[in-house]
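Quick one - first record:
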Amino acid sequence: MARPGRSVRVDVAPGLVPPGDYQAEVVESAVLPTASGRGETLKLVFEIGAGDFRGRRVTEWLNIVNDHATAQRIAQEMLARLCAAAGLAGIADSDELHRIPVMIRVDIRPGSDGYGDRNTIKDYRPLDASRLKQAASVRRPWDP
């Protein structure tokens, strides 16, 4: 009988990244109107750069302009945390966040209103330089 080299989680829906901390970087971003048309959402697509989930993507949506003050405040705080983790004092364009490695804390938000579970990012932290070197040196046989 063949045994996988690592344990396999069966409690996470297909397509989702299990909760945890991951090295990742923004690879896509866009400012889009909210569903109501009265606000703006910053869509950030992160690509995981190391480990078993290397290459997988996690999308985060930040309500940077919103009628609901609390939603807007939380989004702006999260954007500020991302900027700080990336070593930026602030940004004028979301492209400034691209390709800067950071640590993201991923969780799973349960689905509602007919939508399934999805990944969400709970926190951003700077990537320690020594961890970056270590992660870069760990290559799987099938990695380019």
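second record:
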Amino acid sequence: MLSRLGFAFVLAGFYATFISIRSHPARPPLPSPKNATELFRLAESRGNHTGYLTLNEVDDIYHVFDENNDGNVTEVEFVHGWVGRGLGTNSSAYKMFENADTDHNSVITMLDISRIFTYFDRNYDGHISLIEFIIVWTSLAL
């Protein structure tokens, strides 16, 4: 069994290792769970306030980006909506569009939204929890 002093040294060692890895200049910054939480709360606030995202709530957000209401979200519409709402930079918007256009036909459709929803719904219960959202969002490393 580790003594308190031994435990403190082990903990200090882990902390020092974590800080040196995280702050290494060649390492890209870690994605922010705070940004994921803010985006989840924004999406969830448009729905029924259950603390989960449903496919209908995600669909509702999709239509916000469809500026000309033709049923498709183009790259231009997506980038304009993403940056215009302060959700990220042009660079992150282009990367997100690339990930969201699952069939690579240069538009995001309801089929893409359904696939994205399934991808985020890690336990396949028909809802996306905040934890599921953060885990998937940070794995995308936008």
